[in-house]
Design brief:
Four copies of one chain form a homotetramer. The first copy, chain A, is α/β, with parallel strands linked by helices. Chains A and D meet through helix 13 of A and helix 13 of D.
């Protein structure tokens, strides 16, 4: 344990990671560099500076990563209409590779030989942090205190604080919730507490980002979302930066009760776990992206994307953002998006979002052909006969030889 | 054209297919057998008898296929959580193979040498009817009047009626709608009219099966749906036949504004088309099926199903229900469903359906392992280190050799 | 038929396409532009000029497309280790998109409004030519004489020649074979004749490009093939252009009895057909490409490529080279190839090709870790326990709940 | 370590596993049950009895599992035309789940609470054994001596033998090879030694099961292989049991130099490793199985199988035979095989195997349609026009809107 000289810690400023600072100093006799990022979790990050200083930390990094997060991670992921297990929008998963990347950058800048984080040994986040770190800096060492120490209860943590003079008000307010929570610009998540019983309904006062559908306005809200190359760039004609736009969508969605999710998901480490999520802006964005793709993407490209998507979602969920296979899939996905331009009109109402209109200079919708009216020869209905006959040929030959289909 | 002696026609009793009866008699000089099925479209089928008799039809088949439709087609499809292009629940597509099957059975019973239908040459339904027919009876002939005749406008059709003494009240009431509609126990669809402009919002009075979310009750409705082997068998503890259950879900969904959909889809014949759908019961069923699977299915089985699903959906959409590849995929899907048993509690509210609880004797959710509390050794957090290290090994080797990931 | 003014014909100079020239002139009263390409079929293309002139053709295109063919079509395809139905190296399929592209370029240059080709209505080639043409020039008209005329036997063709004064020596020598043949730099194919009986063994004298394994030298030939970015660039240290390199591989393979194939394949138009192929160079190239990838590609990238490959092969076989979905897959494939550099040593012997050595500056093979000997701590065997334990967790939970696996 | 009372050891009778017997007895103070299986490795298994007895083992299991191995593992795998990474026939991988299954059966019979094996911590076999064991008996404990002890060199092992009076002639003859070898009825494998340098060609005297292609007979051998439901049942008309048949194919293949393979593969534990394999019978079987499928399988079924195969191969390679996802894929594969009946005629010659004929009562090859001659109307070439036109429609619409494909 003596050969670690300096460790970069993903530091929230909360109780747990403050304990980790001290524990690392004591256990490894090493210097600790703290890294605190604003990725839109909705809490001030600047207070982490004083707390770190109080713990004797000399190198303190506090970064606003919101734009990078949305531009380089969230939006590329939404280009694929990514959903894990049919439901989950990967709000936690997609933030981890960015944190891993910054941890390694800081390790390089500060000459640290290790990184550390506050994720437990049961969850996905440890995997995501560490796979990313190893992929970006193969010789890095990783210290995961929750897998090493024996402070595995709140009481032991508090006792440790006392013994090591760690001010208990380091405990952030959010930790008083009965739930384990995580938030960033894409979502907020809830686990633990009564959610550990999958039959129990989540309590209304758990949700923080959205009003309940019941409490949402009685009148729908309409917005128009504009896309360029698969990414949203403007709301109701107003161009915004990625983070600003997602924040605005979160407000619109939250106000209309949109984006709540309650699921049981399969973790990469092998267990099922119950999670509740609020992803207001992401839920709107997914619907809108599919709608703009519906008129601009070629059919076979769209289908291929749908077939690749579950794999892509698994990669991100499992922590393989920083992998050559994710990059390879991204190359295919991005190749499809140059034509995904245009506008989608959306109706937000009491928990649901509906695409009610879509238009694009790149539209492949051809009203002359699609029409139920006379199409003036744009489409020759007689072609359908040959189309069907040859598509049926293999089936007819088989049936002719007595093949059964049941 | 002279060698067709008897043709079985999928006959709705409406204007179009009544014209087809006469047109077949005149054009092919053949006998017409009519087949009218109740698949839950919500219209009486018995009146078709008198209409067919008036047209001189001697062999008239009127079948109630509702239970078979839901049991053998809808439910097997939902076992796969089937969605086409991320949105469409395949309400029209899944009814066609049943019609094709009955057409062929009746052709066999009556010694007919051809079948006929009223689908146009631009749509998917012609393909679905004909692929099914050819697959089940390879020597059958198919007459698709809309691809052959020149009655390609309402005016010409009406004129034909006049000239051939077809009573115009044959025109069913639903045809007075500006939309082309199709309905069965799973859904009702709308195409044409102003929908041909993808930017135009569907008018509120178009929708027939559901109240608008705005008009839905201000209080949520809770129901519990019970599954056995992947199929729903009871609502709130009351066992029902498949068709009864789906009908009940339709009522519950419709009353809560659930299941409206407005999309642009890619037809198999090569064009994009706008469609609006109401699938109230199916929307509830999909959500519930995913929820019961979330606690009973193995992770890798669930992921494999998700990866196969788009292909399976394409097969059904394109008309390949009666094909060996659909059967092969079904074998895999069905193999996964023996453990999909249990109950899902659902909240229906103003257009959205949420799974709020799920439980099962076959649950794989293991609260002892998943807990954030002390798990008494059920899970050894130290295992995670080796897990991550070996999963990272290939990435570390590559990074160690200088591979870049961006 | 009168509205075609000028048609570009893919003209081989042989009997069939010479008849087509005249038939087009007579039937459509249009001007015919001939296009003859050298894609390595092993016959002089220049004689086609005099033949076309004799038929009154004024615009005659004769192109040497060998380098473009190999560089832009064959090599990109081999980057994916492409095989159709587990056996076929797509020698015919991959030449068609290039022909389609040139036909359209020439149509643009000459102001033609149609293209024509000599492929029959039963085969894949008509599909490949026409899909490519439509994709590149949507308004183009296509004339496929074999689907239109009634010259469906050799006798009728000869009679037509007589009546229209077409010199019968236009019939190319290769047409005297009992087989229908096609050749280019990648392969030569044989269909028809006794091959129409799948139980009959192909006769030894059918094969033209390779000696029989029995007749091949009794000593193996060793070569070293060098790759850059997934493409072969040198043989035994000598750099060559793409076409030169493939030609050289064909010679080496042919002399060693390599690359014969005898299969029954599934055509896109719905029937099974027997084909025999000689692909000497391609067979060597495939083996070598897999070998260089085996040490340079990441595991998951390699597996993803293997899973995508059958789809990619189907696209090419079915004629969708010029499609957005092929381009999308190509983007993923090409993304993987920047690291596919290095050398493969191959043993060629009496019909088989074996990779006996492979090395690369980009190798991911890490002998320190892979060794059976003491690895000095490069790999911690204890990591394997956690790796296995967590990978087994879902299986153990399921088994603990009584799940059966048989 | 004290709580293990009885352990079932996969015991070869060789030096390594004999040391393990003693080490287990000493380290865990537990009883050891030995299990030795004949899976066709070509060595007597009965001598293991005396050796185990000499080590004080009281419960000794010696089983002939050859028929079960081929019938229930090898043949089901070949139904999928399974190849890992384009080359490897999974000869080692497919034997492990059977051993795991018997270890657990014996643990149940003898009341053992643990299993043990002699696989190292770097390889795939530990994973395959242990995943299987955990999946079949979730509470089982696993002892993997190579991951625990410090006997990590031949010298230390020999010293241990001396100190613990283990007769050194326990060392089996095969261990004198410079290679690490493994054999069963499907193949023999070689790793280590000079093979750890991927550029080095394997030495001729390494290979044990096959003559070199150079040394094989100068005359080809022809055989006919008969299939029922996808499995081979007879050679040249003589019905044989599965193990007998595979043994016979091994002899035929080996005598003709067939089935040698030299590859670098990607292990599940994250490293690349060089392996050489001889799979004479399997190589013949794969070729023959594809050939019989080529005339009996529907095209889309065949393509779906090809797309699923790499995933299925990975499952087996990685040790997930005993998993619900493997069973799910198997259900799909097996569903396809009921029609895979008939005969394939094969030519074996100096290292290569060629299918020269195939026939079946279930053939879908329709010579009336496939013929180049007049087909008497079996196929209407005009159908191809509509087929192409509609398949091209989406491409034409896109091109018409200016979409580029390059």
């Amino acid at each position: 344990m003596s050969d670690i000289k300096k460790v970069v810690l993903a530091y929230s400023g909360g109780l747990d990671t403050s304990v980790i600072v001290r524990w690392l100093q004591d256990t490894y006799g090493c210097e600790v560099v703290t890294f605190t990022a604003d990725i839109g979790q909705g809490e001030e990050v600047e207070p982490a500076r004083a707390k770190a200083e109080a713990l004797g930390v000399k190198e303190i990094y506090i970064d606003d990563l919101r734009e990078e997060f949305v531009r380089d991670f969230v939006f590329p992921m939404f280009r694929a209409n990514t959903i894990y297990e049919g439901e989950y929008l990967l709000g936690t998963s997609i933030a981890r590779p960015l944190i891993a990347k910054r941890l390694i950058e800081i390790a390089n800048e500060t000459g640290a030989d290790a990184i550390s984080h506050g994720a437990t040994g049961k969850g996905n986040d440890q995997v995501r942090f560490e796979l990313g770190a190893y992929a970006l800096m193969p010789g890095i060492q990783v210290i995961a205190p929750w897998r090493e120490w024996d402070l595995n209860s709140r009481e032991k943590l508090m006792k440790y604080c006392e013994e090591h003079s760690i001010p208990v008000d380091f405990s952030s307010s959010k930790k008083k919730s009965p739930y384990s929570m995580d938030a960033n610009l894409l979502h907020i998540s809830y686990e633990g507490g009564i959610l550990e019983e999958p039959w129990a309904e989540a309590e209304e006062d758990m949700w923080r980002w959205s009003v309940s559908p019941e409490a949402a306005p009685d009148q729908p809200t309409y917005i128009t979302l504009q896309f360029e190359k698969g990414d949203p760039v403007a709301i109701d004609g107003e161009r915004m930066s990625p983070a600003t736009l997602l924040e605005k969508l979160n407000k619109l969605g939250g106000a209309n009760g949109i984006g709540r999710l309650d699921i049981v998901e399969n973790r990469y480490v092998g267990m099922k776990s119950r999670g509740c999520y609020e992803t207001p802006g992401g839920t709107i964005l997914l619907k809108a992206h599919r709608a703009i793709e519906s008129i601009t993407l070629d059919r076979e490209v769209a289908h291929l994307k749908d077939e690749l998507m579950p794999r892509y979602a698994q990669l991100i969920y499992n922590g393989y953002w920083w992998s050559p296979e994710r990059r390879m899939l991204q190359a295919a996905i991005d190749d499809s998006q140059s034509v995904v331009n245009g506008e989608v009109r959306l109706k937000l109402y009491k928990g649901s979002v509906t695409a009610v209109g879509r238009r694009s200079a790149d539209s492949l919708f051809d009203e002359r052909i699609a029409t139920f009216e006379d199409d003036a020869g744009a489409y020759d209905q007689k072609d359908a006969e040959g189309f069907i006959k040859l598509n049926a040929l293999r089936l007819r030959i088989a049936a002719g030889k007595g093949r059964e289909l049941t």
